[in-house]
């Protein structure tokens, strides 16, 4: 397919997700700023960039349904958005994305702030036989920036066909992205020495209801399973609907408060340390090499970094600092497991949420290329983090340049 220059001119700068994430982390209320964005977009109804910025702002403020409606309006006008390098451009990265919420695609701008990499956001048409309906801008490398989910399986299949014999290198090729989908990954990564991942098994709402009512035992719907279990709706992300269930009776309350007809069920692994605290790490593999991104410490088994008390507790931040400083030891301990993830998924860039079991094995919660990775935390509060996140940024840049160089 011939490559063309990007069309469409806007008076606004495409913002991406980074500024909104930065404000959220800093505790800045940008509601009033969003009201100003609404007024600007209404005064320029044909400016797709303004509407796309507003869509991201709305979703960042948890108004997801409205944000998706605004995003669809923007994409009706324009499918390509340019996030320019903050330094003289060294490389142009074409990022193939899908319409969706903030977890649907790799938020690479959150990692590549102040870089010399141009990011070209190309939103494919998921309903078209050829998803690349808009002219394709000039670029040096392609990254399929789509996170794995059941909903994206068909568009990834069509993208695989569209990208055949593509004249530029393609990272995270479409055929490999589904390997990171929760169910697929839980089966793909079985029988790896030193790695533990509990199979994510599909069950229906009716099957769970039958267990809750005593009509069936848990082992009848998921063989060899006993309580406690982890349950979450199929397609959910970010812990939405995720719950530990300790008994059949507890299923009833869970179903009453959780929507969905299909669920994932997994075994619960107690990964607490000797002090009773849980520690969950985020690691990225870039071209097969592991890098530390963060470690959350909590008294609760379900850890989200933003609510684990990391910003309020200096001791937890010190523990995270030690994790960063000793990461080479961590990576060596789990070298075989991390290599297996890279090799079996076939993805050049992927995020991993993990922990260490009491037996010293690597416990995998989730793998996903669309995990948020950033270097936005306050340097004074997190003095160790910037040093190590610079390693992540550098590795990402070097990988892109390496693949671009191979195409020259």
From TrEMBL:
All residue ranges annotated as the ATP-grasp domain in the record: 195-396
InterPro entries cross-referenced by the UniProt entry: ATP-grasp
SUPFAM superfamilies: Glutathione synthetase ATP-binding domain-like (SSF56059)
Keyword Acyltransferase: no
Domain of life: Bacteria
Keywords, comma-separated and alphabetical: ATP-binding, Ligase, Nucleotide-binding
Listed GO MF terms: ATP binding; ligase activity; metal ion binding
Record protein name field: Glutathione synthase/RimK-type ligase, ATP-grasp superfamily
